[in-house]
């Protein structure tokens, strides 16, 4: 404070007579401006180092934050590129799976058609076999009926045309044949 007082006194000396040069200046406006200039000068002189340190620290903090942001940006960009690459691989894999699925579907469709054709052929063969069996059965039944009817007619014809004398000769003739056969075998 004494420096300020001396400065105030020195500036006021030009206006005051020499005897009154020591004292207090009561003009607040003049003294405040001078005091304010002195305080600012002292602050600039002594606070310059502190202010520079604070500004340097702030500058380093900002630069560090910018570097961190740039690193994060680069990492995010790398991750994005990796994600794009994985997405592309996934798309390729999905296309491959889709193509394989379509190929498998086509193979199964062809196998199903082939199997259905084979089943149809087997059914056709079975049907034809059944038809042939039924035809053979019907032919055999017709043969048996024809044979039976032929025998019945032959018996009827024999019964009608055979009389007792003819039957007797036929029996004698067959007995003679049997005796001849028996005599040959001895």
UniProtKB/TrEMBL annotation:
**Which keywords does the record carry?**
ATP synthesis, CF(0), Chloroplast, Coiled coil, Hydrogen ion transport, Ion transport, Membrane, Plastid, Thylakoid, Transmembrane, Transmembrane helix, Transport
Give the UniProt entry's GO cellular component terms: chloroplast thylakoid membrane; proton-transporting ATP synthase complex
Q: How does it sit in the membrane?
A: Single-pass membrane protein
Location in or out of the cell = Membrane; Plastid, Chloroplast thylakoid membrane
Q: Which InterPro entries match?
A: ATP_synth_b/b'su_bac/chlpt
Q: Which Gene Ontology molecular-function terms are recorded?
A: proton-transporting ATP synthase activity, rotational mechanism
What role is this protein assigned? F(1)F(0) ATP synthase produces ATP from ADP in the presence of a proton or sodium gradient. F-type ATPases consist of two structural domains, F(1) containing the extramembraneous catalytic core and F(0) containing the membrane proton channel, linked together by a central stalk and a peripheral stalk. During catalysis, ATP synthesis in the catalytic domain of F(1) is coupled via a rotary mechanism of the central stalk subunits to proton translocation.
* Extra remark: In plastids the F-type ATPase is also known as CF(1)CF(0).
Instruction: Family membership, please give it.
Output: Belongs to the ATPase B chain family.
Which protein are we looking at? ATP synthase subunit b, chloroplastic
Organism listed in the record: Coleochaete scutata
């Amino acid at each position: 404070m004494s420096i300020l007082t001396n400065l105030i006194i020195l500036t006021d000396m030009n206006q005051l007579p020499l005897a009154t040069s020591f004292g207090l200046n009561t003009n607040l406006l003049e003294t405040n401006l001078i005091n304010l200039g002195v305080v600012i000068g002292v602050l600039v002189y002594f606070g310059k180092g502190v202010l520079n340190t604070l500004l340097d620290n702030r500058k380093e903090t900002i630069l560090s934050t910018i570097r961190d942001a740039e690193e994060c940006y680069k990492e995010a960009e790398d991750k994005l590129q990796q994600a794009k690459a994985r997405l592309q691989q996934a798309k390729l894999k999905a296309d491959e799976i889709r193509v394989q699925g379509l190929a498998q579907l086509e193979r199964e469709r062809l196998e199903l058609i082939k199997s259905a054709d084979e089943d149809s052929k087997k059914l056709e063969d079975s049907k034809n076999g059944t038809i042939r069996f039924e035809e053979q059965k019907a032919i055999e039944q017709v043969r048996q009926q024809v044979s039976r009817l032929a025998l019945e007619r032959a018996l009827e014809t024999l019964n009608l045309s055979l009389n007792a004398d003819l039957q007797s000769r036929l029996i004698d003739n067959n007995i003679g044949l049997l005796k001849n056969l028996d005599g040959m075998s001895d």
